[in-house]
Amino acid sequence: MIRAKICGITHVDDAVAAARVGADAVGLVFYEKSPRAVSVSRAREILQALPPFVSSVGLFVNADPATIERVLDGCPLDTLQFHGDEPPDFCRRFGRPYLKVLRVSGEEDLRRPVDDYFDAQGLLLDCAVAGHWGGSGQSFAWWKLPDLGKPLILAGGLRADNVQEAIRVACPYAVDVSSGVEQSPGIKDHDKMGQFMAQLQGF
Ligand SMILES: O=C(O)c1ccccc1NCC(=O)[C@H](O)[C@H](O)COP(=O)(O)O
After folding, report:
1. Is 60 helix (H, G, I), strand (E, B) or coil?
2. CATH code at 161?
3. Is any atom of ligand 1 closer than 6 Å to the C-beta of 29?
4. Least buried of 43, 55, 163, 188, by fewest C-beta within 10 Å?
């Protein structure tokens, strides 16, 4: 089955439910202006509740290094996800696996970012929306993603009723969802998470 991350988890019970319905990873937002922001202590509680083989991804937006180090000291995240304008040297300085987010609006040449972020675990494509760094619930115009030797993760406005089409068009390595499985920003809807994950069967 295609891999999936459920992002913007703020509560232990949502993380446990995400794992139960088959999410491979949960995303925790360390960006204080987000309605989905979590504290380090809440993040640690969430990580401690995760079952084996479900990984944790910490999201940052142009954070200063000391902030990221403080989060990592208190909370052993598996992967960092950079949503801002972080250059490659910044992303690699923490010595952790990382994902770089590219904000796109349609077909773009991805060779340059793939080269620049050569040591990223993957690149995550999200919709470019003015005034949003992520979690906008907006989709970009999907296209067949090229094989550039780097896992490409599709995000932006995915929901149970469009994720199959998105996968058929784009053929990503994995999908990432946040607002499409929520009741309200930061509060996940467990039924919607289950319906989303059910759509991934067979891919
Ligand atoms: O969720 C936020 O509020 C957020 C704020 C700042 C940077 C990133 C943020 N979220 C990223 C995500 O949750 C997802 O990885 C991605 O943007 C897809 O979100 P959605 O379109 O809501 O499915």
Report:
1. strand
2. 3.20.20.70
3. yes
4. 55
Distance between Cα 103 and ligand 1 center (Å) = 11
3-class SS of residue 35 = coil
The 10 Å Cβ neighbour count of residue 53 is: 8
| Residue 142 Cβ < 6 Å to ligand 1 | no
For 138-176, the pLDDT digits (tens) are 999 999 999 999 999 999 999 999 999 999 999 999 999
Which of 146, 100, 154, 150 minimizes the C-alpha distance to 125?
Answer: 154
Provide the residue range defining the domain that includes 70. Answer: 3-198
ipTM of the complex: 0.97
Nearest to 82 by CA among 54, 113, 105: 113
Distance CA 95, CA 114 (A): 19
Which pTM value belongs to this model?
Answer: 0.97
